[in-house]
């Protein structure tokens, strides 16, 4: 799974406080006098709600695990070739690998893509988590590579998927993957309004075996 995207930096929320009575700092929602009793009561009321919020949503998990089965064909270890058209540098051909598995009782799919050049170095390495939102009925992919991260909608079809990233004004990168029963093929096209699509990436992989990743080595009780 090739990953190319813009960096996304989440905003950091700060903790606020309020100055009361000669500079004394009080937590939000509290004030001097009988009001602190109300704040304490609200905090106590919130405790069972917090505990309830951490209970597993079994219905959602069932829907998520069922949705992940559409990606079962991806499970295992893959090896093949990736060809990338480099601007001003011609075509670059690399050995490309993928390993795919599940976590959290099969409710998410995890993917690592890694490319190797002729010298055995790794010019490309990416990690992605594919999830399903039981409320919206949509898939998403959270991806990481080269110090960047991004979240993208993923359109999953039978034995394949598509996803896209922004590529400037009125332009995008469109990726499309298919599996024909033996071969995983993924292509990438640069698509701009009013212009024909320009292919720049193609990955062709064969499954080389099963994988116990990422569950292998997971922690146990003892």
H/E element order: EEHHEEEEEEEEEE
The parts where pLDDT drops under 50 for at least 5 residues are 4-32
- Share in β-strands: over 45%
* Tally of separate helices: 2
Helix content: 10-25%
Biggest sheet, in brief?
A: 10 strands, antiparallel, barrel
Radius of gyration: 24 Å
CATH fold type of one domain:
Lipocalin
CATH secondary-structure class of one domain: Mainly Beta
Give me the side-by-side strand order of the main sheet. Answer: 3-4-5-6-7-8-9-10-11-12
What does this entry look like structurally?
By secondary structure, the chain is mainly beta. The protein has helices spanning 35-53, 58-68; strands spanning 18-20, 24-26, 76-86, 90-103, 108-116, 124-133, 138-145, 148-157, 160-166, 171-179, 183-192, 198-209. It has a domain at 58-209: Calycin beta-barrel core domain (Lipocalin, Beta Barrel). The strands form 2 sheets. The chain has a 10-stranded antiparallel β-barrel. Strand 7 (138-145) and strand 8 (148-157) form a beta hairpin.
A few lines on this structure:
By secondary structure, the chain is mainly beta. It has helices spanning 35-53, 58-68; strands at residues 18-20, 24-26, 76-86, 90-103, 108-116, 124-133, 138-145, 148-157, 160-166, 171-179, 183-192, 198-209.
Supply the key terms:
222 residues; mainly beta; Lipocalin; 10-stranded antiparallel β-barrel; two-stranded antiparallel sheet; 48% strand; globular
